[in-house]
Design a protein that fits this description.
The complex is a heterodimer of chains A (118) and B (147). Chain A is 75% helix and 0% strand. Chain A is mainly α and 118 residues long. Chain A has one domain. In chain A, helix 1 packs antiparallel against helix 2, helix 2 runs antiparallel to helix 3 and helix 3 runs parallel beside helix 5. The relative contact order of chain A is 0.13. Chain B has one domain. In chain B, the strands form 2 sheets. A 3-stranded antiparallel β-sheet of chain B has the order 3-4-5, with no helix packed on it. Chain B has a two-stranded antiparallel ribbon with strand order 1-2. Chain B has 5 helices and 5 strands, in the order ααββααβββα. Chain B is globular and about 40 Å long. The chains are: A mainly alpha (118), B alpha+beta (147). At the A-B interface, helix 1, helix 3 and helix 5 of A face helix 4 and strand 3 of B.
Chain lengths: 118, 147
């Protein structure tokens, strides 16, 4: 069977970045419902990107996307789901514990409260 | 040139309208002149850069809507992103490519190597020195390369 070269869609990265920006803008104007919607979209796009980067042997970017998935779920108002993902990542990458702790600390500082889901 | 062309991966509509809202407060006529002091920017160095920011293509309705929607301090933060985008492009041809991860201490990622970019907008000049020191320290504590 022939090996198909794997690439990561530039379009997918762009759409994900813009969904993150939309989420951040919604946060800034206090529109929780819109923020949740856009961060959830970004989380799901990051899920796809994490796998695509891994397939393309871009481990650093895959790791970044995995962290971003959890971060986006948190900012979408789903902190419990985010904590489960962070715990899973910590189990898989114990040497990255300081990085995960840093992200969690910042999320707890900036986005402490649970919000209603879409 | 338009920010949408210089940094095409990002969304600029609201950021541009916020920039027009902020600059039109201090300058009655467009294009709005802006002088940026650049320090140690890779590929550029240290120099003053002068822009003329033309609000062409930004609808007055959009600007008024943003003025009603966001607090003044938020508008300044958004305008700072646009100024950073212009400065990075005209000072070294850098491209803002993505949003930084929460916890990285930065706001955006620049160029293919993903330099960290921290953006801070302050509406009062006297707050600037302290804000600069805080942000610079936070960024330098985290990771190895950044703007």
């Amino acid at each position: 069977m022939a090996t198909i070269p794997t690439s990561v869609s530039d379009m997918l990265v762009t759409v994900k970045s813009r969904e993150l920006q939309r989420g951040m803008l919604a946060e800034m104007r206090g529109d929780c419902s819109a923020a949740s919607r856009h961060f959830l979209a970004a989380a799901h796009l990051e899920l796809v990107l994490a796998e695509d980067y891994a397939q393309a042997d871009q481990a650093d970017l895959a790791w970044r996307s995995q962290l971003s998935v959890a971060s986006c779920f948190w900012r979408a108002g789903r902190p419990e789901q985010a904590r489960e993902l962070f715990a899973m990542l910590l189990q898989e990458h114990p040497t990255q514990a300081p990085v995960i702790r840093q992200i969690l600390a910042e999320l707890e500082h900036h986005d402490p409260g649970p919000r209603s889901e879409v | 040139m338009a920010l949408t062309t210089l940094h095409p991966r990002l969304l600029w509509d609201d950021i541009l309208a916020a920039t027009v809202a902020v600059l039109s407060e201090t300058c009655p006529q467009s294009p709005f002149p802006f002088t940026l002091t650049v320090q140690d920017l890779p590929g550029f160095g240290s120099e003053q850069v002068r822009f003329a920011i033309d609000p062409v293509g930004v609808a007055a309705d959009h600007v008024r809507r943003l003025q009603r929607t966001y607090e003044a301090s938020r508008l300044v933060e958004l305008a700072a992103i646009a100024i950073a985008g212009l400065g990075l492009y005209y000072g070294g041809g850098h491209e803002m490519r993505d949003v930084a991860l929460r916890g990285s201490g930065a706001d955006y990622l620049v160029d293919e190597v993903h330099h960290l970019l921290e953006v801070a907008g302050r509406s009062r000049r006297r707050d600037f020195g302290v804000a600069w020191q805080q942000r610079w320290q936070r960024l330098s504590e985290r990771l190895e390369s950044g703007f």
